[in-house]
Amino acid sequence: MKGSRPEQAALTRDTDMSKTEATRAVIEVMVDGLNDHRITDIGEFFSESFRWMGNQGCGTKTGLREFQDNWQKPFQAAFGDKVCIDEARLYMGEWAAAFGRQEATHHGPFMGIEPTGKRVEIRYMDFWKVVDGKIVDNWVMVDFPHVLAQLGRDVFDGDGWEAFDRGDKAPPAV
Q1: Which of 107, 139, 162, 163 has a CB 3.0–4.6 Å from the CB of 80, allowing a cystine?
Q2: Strand (E) or helix (H) holding 101
Q3: Which segments of 11-129 does DSSP mark as H helices, in order?
Q4: What SS3 class is residue 140?
Q5: Which of 21, 30, 25, 106 is closest to 67 using CA atoms?
Q6: Strand partners, 61
């Protein structure tokens, strides 16, 4: 890239590294709470006004109530027997990140697909900002195309780039 460069990592530049252990404690009990399928009392972990910012198909939730009503409840209605498994966690001051998977049974309607009873893997990545012992921001990527594929719907209609990996298609020339 020639010329001026965009500013990088502005949100984490001034993180207070002395907060790392406190951040770790919040995230660990929050994940346990979500694995216990808690909804009504998750204000223990999240600020009332926290922002949950998801990828396309997930949406953005502003505030605890919106997160509960427009993410947690519909998600639990669609997927039961859910367990969250963080495969890796990173902590840095007021910041934490994780990636992993949820394993769940598709037992309610999900994006127009009636319940299949199938056990599915729901891959995700989370980045959290913790202030004064509560999560104030949560950036989320949930791999809904992978979930839908397990339920029989290819959102890429056969044009996903996995075809390059398998040799079914040649990548475009550069």
Answers
A1: 107
A2: strand 95-106
A3: 20-35, 64-67, 73-78
A4: strand
A5: 30
A6: 52
In which residue are the tokens 């996903």 written? 160
What is the reported pTM? 0.90
**Non-local CB neighbours of 65 within 8 Å, separated by 6+ positions:** none
Alpha carbons 153 and 144: distance in angstroms, whole number: 11
Helix (H) or strand (E) holding 131: strand 119-131
Whether 111 and 79 have beta carbons less than 8 Å apart is answered as: no
Mean pLDDT, each 10-residue run in order, the chain (174 residues): 88 96 97 88 93 95 94 94 95 98 97 97 98 97 97 93 83 81
- Give the 3-state secondary structure of residue 119: strand
Helix (H) and strand (E) counts for the chain?
A: 5, 6
**Type of residue at 14:** D
Q: State the residue for tokens 């660990």.
A: 28
Asked if residues 39 and 71 have their Cβ atoms less than 8 Å apart, the reply is no
Question: Which single residue is written with the structure tokens 């984490």?
Answer: 12
